Amino acid sequence: MENTILEQMGFIIGDWIPKEASIAIAVEDSYIYYKAGVHDLQIREGQPVLPGSIAARAKKEGQRIEMFVEESIFGTPYYGIGYPVKLGEKESVLVIILPPDYLVRKNKPIRFLTGKYEDTWRPVSVNKVSHIESSQKKTWFYTDDETYCAIHTLKNLKHQLPDSFLPIHRSYIVNIDYIEEISRDIASNYQLTLRDGSILPVSQNYTASVRERLGF
Q: For residues 85 and 62, what is the distance between their CA atoms, to the nearest angstrom?
């Protein structure tokens, strides 16, 4: 009976959330229901709720939680919304799981980045940025000819860049328009070659989302 109700809830909710979203329901300290969307965290029924996840936060704080979660929790990053609910007399949480770039599409993206070049600061159109890198506790972005240092963190930029930008690694975000080819390295991991010859690694944690976005 309970499983039938959960299935009905999942299909009803699925009518108004984005099609790529997954739905999870946790009761107390474990998941009892999971309906996979395009962005699939592969949660299993009976799997424990992990510390740092949206389900854990929503249960602990007893309120709606909307946040980005790094790949260290489930092995792949995601953006989600958690709602504390009651199932019978038990404290439960309903979680809507969305792709990590959901905020980019939800909010109006930024049109330029301001970076330091030598001793000056310059605003640069994001259309001219080939990729962005986090290195040595600094954020760098690259155009065809120049390298700039920015005050933004890569984590914050993930939520602000246009849809043409794709996170491929915890240290890299790439402009899809600048990708020349996709290949594999000697360890059979994907790598991207850009128009300027730069070769960027694709982390295994981002492989599924990269293949989904690029369609291969």
A: 9
> 123 by DSSP, 3-state: which?
strand
Inform me whether the pLDDT recorded for 1 exceeds 50: no
Q: Could you count the other beta carbons within 10 Å of the beta carbon of residue 62?
A: 10
Q: What is the pLDDT of residues 125-175, one digit of tens each?
A: 999 999 999 998 899 999 998 999 998 888 888 878 998 999 999 999 999
Question: What is the 3-class SS of 7-19, one letter each residue?
Answer: HHHHHHHHCCCCC
From the centroid of its chain, how far is CA 198? 23
Average pLDDT over the chain reads 86
This prediction's pTM: 0.54
Residue 128 vs residues 42, 100, 151: alpha-carbon distances, Å: 37, 23, 18
Residues 93, 59 contacting (CB under 8 angstroms): yes
Closest C-alpha to 130, from 172, 100, 182: 172
Q: What's the length of the chain?
A: 216
Using DSSP, state whether 172 is helix, strand or coil. strand
What single-letter amino acid sits at 61? Answer: E
